[in-house]
Amino acid sequence: MAALAYSLAQTSVAPALGDMAASLHTSVDKVTWTMTGYLVSAAVLTPAFGRLGDMFGKRRLLVISLAVFAIGGAVAALGDSLAVVVAGRVVMGAGGGVFPLCFGIIRDEFPDQRRASAVGLISATAGVGGGLGLLMGGLLVDHASYHWIFWAGTAMAVAAAIAAEILLPESPVRTPGRVDIVGTVLLGVGITAPLIAISQATSWGWTGGRTLGLIAVGLAVLVVFVLVERRTTEPLVDMAVLGRPPVLMTNLSTLLIGSGMFGVFVLVPQLVETPQLSGYGFGGDATHAGLLMLPGGLAMLVAGPLSGVLTKRFSGKVPMALGGLVAAVGMGLLALQHGSQGTVLAYTTVVFAGIGLAFAAMPNLIVDAVEAAKTGEATGVNALVRSVGSSLGTQVIASILANSVTAPSRFPTENSYTVSFVVSTVGALVAAVVAVLIPRARHDRAPVRKAAGVTVPLSTTPRAVGKQGNRHT
After folding, report:
1. CA-CA distance, 40 to 192, in Å (whole number)?
2. pLDDT tens by residue, 340-372
3. End-to-end distance of the chain based on CA atoms, in angstroms?
4. How many CB atoms within 10 Å of residue 193?
5. What burial class does residue 163 get, using C-beta atoms within 10 Å of its C-beta: 0-12 exposed, 13-18 middle, 19+ buried?
6. What single-letter DSSP state applies at residue 94?
7. Is there a smaller number of Cβ atoms within 10 Å at the N or the C end of the chain?
8. Do 374 and 238 contact (CB within 8 A), yes or no?
9. Are strands 454-457 and 448-451 parallel, antiparallel or unpaired?
10. Spatial separation of the C-alpha atoms in residues 104 and 472, rounded to whole Å
11. 448: helix, strand or coil
12. Crossing angle between the packed helical segments 375-403 and 341-369, to the nearest 10 degrees
């Protein structure tokens, strides 16, 4: 429920941008800051919450993350000006900590034979929630108002926070230390500047001074961040762990897969909602677009546990590479044929099935490559990379479509959709190749429990002692 609340919030605002612009008396370009602010905030806070969870307890930080998310949702729902709504969305970005904290709890609490499937299911929820978010947003905009999008997220987060506090055991694996304030600030600036530039590139221009300037500033700050973290005793991000080949190559593949998924999230709804007079659009509404993508979301839900099974039987890179390949096939078919609703539905389902396989494999590859004490930190960085990829993919596709709009028709050309699907296809193929090259982790990094001064491997911890017994084993 926690993972779904965050994932729904990523995309549910997209169908409501026009309605929000009218209600808040502003332009659609300015309203897009409700999405940009959320993505930027989540990108910065995700690794920070993952690290804090490793230090102070994953359940505790999961509850805090959900509580802050709920507060932000309430602020956005009650806001009557763009500034207040954007501020609420920025606060909601704290929900980004949900994924690394959930992965860490599963790593600490689940037996080895169930861990891969459980991690895969939570990870697939990211994609499922993204697809369902478009449907939910469309339904609420068409039949209620955009305010209910934020209230729905708030209600889910509150319910998940209460359930986590009551039902989840506190993870016993801790990494004592201090909060790396300098590293957090540097990472925040280094990530925020390029993401703002990418999100505004369509209106500023990819070669505009503001776009290139912010990207350059961000990259320079990230270089400083790496240098500082290497010399910090207790860093926010352990660069030695991040630089391990399995972690590094998994993050690269994650960037490409995330970019492709959100590219499709932009392309399919816009294709469906383009009027028929354009010669290629279906003339549907936001609900219609969401329903066409619903089977794909369900396919991702099935693909998550299947990815876990493949991971246990072979290795995480098998479903990662297979997922990239399947997604590339689906996108390639969409590039060749997107003239009917039946083909769009079928091929989009293929794309999402592939993305579901890959998404579920990502955290498993990271978890297998790092120590238990580094789980939250490492999966937090992976989630950050996925956020960057989603922002990049969204804006690249939006730019391709925007640059093809002609004055008389006011619609993108059909060829721009073909080009966009081809770009996404190439990205997914490269991700599959990178996944094939991911090396296997060389040594055992099995999580451990410490009880009564004795270190016990998680895989040998008795499981039949009940929840309270398990909590104190």
Report:
1. 6
2. 999 999 999 999 899 889 988 888 888 888 887
3. 27
4. 21
5. middle
6. G
7. N
8. yes
9. antiparallel
10. 18
11. strand
12. 150
